[in-house]
Amino acid sequence: MKDVQRIAIVDPSDSTREPLRNLLLGVEAVWLEAECSRYEFFIDVARQSCPDTVVIALDSDHHKAFQLIQQLTVEFPHMPILAVSARGDGQSILQALRAGAKEFLTAPVVLEELLLALQRLRANRTSSGNDTNGVLNGAARTDSLVISVIGSKGGVGCTSLAVNLGCCIAQDPRYNAALVDLDLALGDADVALDLIPDYTLADVAMNVDRLDMQFLRRSLCKHESGLSLLPHPVQMEDIALIHDEHLGRVIGLLRASYSHLVFDLSKRFTPTDLTAVRMSDIVLLVAQLELTSLRNVVRMLHTMDKEEGLGEKVKVVMNRVGAEDSDITLEKAQDTIGKPIYWQVPNDYKSMLGARNSGVPLLIHAPKSRVHQSLVGLANALCGKAPTEAPKKERRGFFSFR
Ligand SMILES: Nc1ncnc2c1ncn2[C@@H]1O[C@H](COP(=O)(O)OP(=O)(O)O)[C@@H](O)[C@H]1O
Ligand SMILES: [Mg+2]
């Protein structure tokens, strides 16, 4: 269990220990190593189980809890301690930290805060050289990559690129990738992957107040490529249930659970789209060598450049390069946009349409096609893998479309 954070908790009160335990059990990367209901027995539990992190609920007996924290700090100076108490006043927090706790959470514990605290504890432990664990699963992840795919006009290839990019990323066994269909009204990522989902973003939004990791993970369906999908609502009227603050919470939790997230956005620049874009590390703006699309790219870049930190995340992806019906060159497009074209995806109507009509990704329908190879290259580039992993011949080919 290399990537798992092994946790031991102590809380004499069943009524607070149960919910805390359930919360921890829902976090994929957490392994509940030991659970103890007596402060005085916990030091032995810690000696035997050597957990990565201990969680100590203070409220049954603050005096005994602080004594335990001090004892643990002496015996295991590098063991991160997370203290939990309903008394979130400055004095209680200070006392816990002085005793040796590294983090303090106010009960009842909220999942996001727990994940962040565990992440910080793990990061500290890693930086102090006591933990060489990987960073791939769950709460301990600090490097999840969030990619928004946004189109500059309808039919520009957003869904095609998002779905196939997601599948390419999911091929790496070290990653777990999820695609979120945020084209709330007209999205069709489920059709592109021929998945019939049990749950959609609307179910998640409706349950946002009692959302936990298990529920969230159950709401995604998994494609055979390894990519998980959270689809758009089935009923149009359910779109109204999804508020951008819900989405912020959902994305936060998904980040903690998946190494890579890909968002297929609408073309309407809605508040939901903007929330997704703001929470992304990379924004792929999909364009075509065509006047309306390029004009919209300029307008969208202009809008996003106005918001601090947003413009620099945007990378322009030129789709359908080499299509016969375009008479605008890449150089001209680049001049118009005023920003380098980050990636070129070749036109391949047969492979793309065939894959779409059969509801399978390119990696199954046309793995040797140049368009698939281009998307493998894009996935590698975004994930920081060496460009040599994309076939050289294909990459040369794209530039020959100029
Ligand atoms: N690189 C490409 N070459 C050829 N056809 C493409 C390419 N990318 C997308 N398409 C086709 O364009 C159409 C619209 O694509 P889609 O991904 O649904 O766009 P959007 O989600 O932006 O509305 C689909 O029929 C798809 O097969
Ligand atoms: Mg689409």
How would you characterize this protein structure?
This protein is α/β, with parallel strands linked by helices and 402 residues long. Helix content is 43%, strand content 18%. The protein is built from 17 helices and 13 strands. It has helices at 14-25, 39-49, 62-75, 90-99, 111-127, 158-170, 189-192, 201-206, 213-218, 244-257, 271-278, 291-306, 330-337, 349-358, 362-365, 370-382, 392-399, and strands at 5-10, 30-36, 53-57, 81-85, 103-106, 145-151, 177-182, 221-222, 228-230, 260-265, 282-287, 314-321, 341-346. The protein has an 8-stranded mixed sheet, sandwiched between helices. A 5-stranded parallel sheet has the order 2-1-3-4-5, sandwiched between helices. The longest helix is centred in the N-terminal third of the chain and has 17 residues, at 111-127. The radius of gyration is 24 Å and the shape is elongated. Residues 129-142 and 389-402 have low confidence and may be disordered. Adenosine-5'-diphosphate (ADP) binds at residues 151, 154-160, 319-320, 345, 347-349, 352-353, 356, 371.
